[in-house]
Design a protein that fits this description.
The protein has 411 residues and is mostly helical. The chain is built from 18 helices and two strands. Helix 8 packs across helix 17.
Length: 411
């Protein structure tokens, strides 16, 4: 064991000068603790978490509410799809207004309009109004702001000169997304069954409005409004359009996996089994946020394409336990891919259009989820066996990887 050098002094032995003045050994600090060290970060995160939880509740609550009253899952699905499609069209314009006039000035009235649409839908369903009124009400909810995008924009503003902190923040936000989409459907289903069919939609609307009000009240961390520029849409930024294509294909992975799993398991245990994919992604996101050097998008998509084949292999065994494990492992590629993709969006988008750029990415993701749901439903119904429906997710992941390689060659 090495000895620490000493030197003799009139008062006895002491550390040699170069050891006496040496700084104490540095400990690696927790990146998440560093992330929340800035004043106001915990407050806006808490408000945003409350506002974001309903994103995993609205769809399930609406389907349960409408199908219970009209005895038609087809109508419930069509009304829900109308709301998603309307939001995909309106969300980039809402995000552009957020960038131009500020989060608080735009997000609060936009949320109020969206909540009023939800309440109108609830009342129409309760009164058994004609079906066409449900579609109109669903379309009016499209003004809902992208709460996740606004939170990421705050982190990007606060840590604009610290790439490592931005990476950790993006990983944390992705873990929050997965947590909301893991807990939201369960909470909505519980409220609708334990209280009354409209309870899920009503409480989700109250949480959404209350959370946005809490989030918007934290003005100290809000990015300053950006004046109107001649830069045009972030779509014109070099590399943005191909990257949105990658998000579109990645969304198809999620949409097809959800529908195929629901069709394969076909029972009350389907929800918890499917939630394991989100749990794996949430855990991987938190771990990925502690990594100092982020992986490239191509590497993340390669891992996703490989891991998404595990549910297919597990399903061929016929074991539900094996499928649950396969979904858990497959989900671990989701968060790193999304974190890396969102980081690229932030780099490609001008700071004055950050909310709009990230909302475009979310819109592409939603479009992919819708397309993947349709493909997954077709595969689950027409494949020789239900297990072969699991071919759709790895094929969509391979498409995303191919698109990312095409983007890299053009760059």
């Amino acid at each position: 064991m090495p000895r620490t050098p000493l030197t003799l002094t009139p008062h006895g032995p002491a550390l040699a000068p170069r050891y006496r003045d040496a700084p104490p050994p540095r400990r690696r600090s927790n990146p998440y603790a560093r992330l929340f060290a800035l004043p106001g970060t915990k407050a806006f995160t808490a408000g945003n978490l409350v506002a974001r939880l309903p994103s995993g509740m609205f769809g399930v609550a609406a389907v349960i509410m409408i199908s219970d009253r009209y005895d038609s899952y087809a109508l419930a699905g069509a009304v829900n799809a109308t709301g998603v499609a309307a939001m995909a069209l309106v969300a980039p314009w809402t995000a552009r207004l957020v960038d131009r006039y500020g989060q608080a000035r735009v997000a609060v009235p936009a949320t109020v309009l969206s909540v009023l649409g939800t309440l109108a839908l609830l009342l129409c369903v309760r009164a058994a109004a004609p079906a066409w009124t449900l579609f109109i009400c669903a379309a009016t909810t499209a003004t809902a702001p992208n709460t996740g995008g606004m939170s990421r924009a705050r982190w990007a503003h606060l840590y604009r000169d610290d790439a490592a902190a931005r990476h950790t923040a993006n990983a944390f936000e992705q873990a929050v997304d997965e947590l909301c989409f893991m807990l939201g459907p369960v909470l909505a289903a519980f409220l609708c069954s334990a209280l009354f069919p409209q309870a899920g939609s009503l409480i989700a609307a109250a949480l959404f409005l209350g959370g946005v009000l809490l989030f918007a009240a934290q003005r100290a961390t809000e990015p300053p409004p950006a004046p109107r520029t001649s830069a045009g849409s972030p779509l014109r930024a070099p590399g943005m359009a191909p990257l949105l294509g990658v998000f579109l294909a990645t969304g198809a992975v999620f949409g097809s996996m959800e529908v195929v799993t629901l069709a394969y398991v076909d029972g009350p245990v389907a929800g918890p089994v499917l939630a394991l994919q989100a749990a794996g992604s949430c855990a991987a996101g938190l771990v990925y946020g502690r990594v100092r050097r982020a992986a490239g998008l191509g590497a993340c998509l390669t891992a996703m394409a490989l891991l998404m084949s595990l549910p297919l292999l597990a399903a061929t065994t016929g074991s539900l336990l094996a499928l649950a494990g396969g979904l858990l492992l497959a989900g671990m590629a989701t968060a790193p891919t999304m974190v890396t993709g969102m980081s690229l969006v932030q780099r490609l988008t001008p700071p004055s259009q950050l909310n709009e750029g990230m909302t475009l990415a979310v819109t592409a993701l939603l479009g992919g989820i819708a397309a993947g749901s349709a493909v997954g439903g077709w595969a689950a119904e027409h494949a020789p066996t239900a297990a072969y429906g699991y071919l759709a997710p790895p094929l969509a992941a391979a498409l995303a990887l191919t698109l990312s390689m095409t983007k890299a060659r053009r760059s």
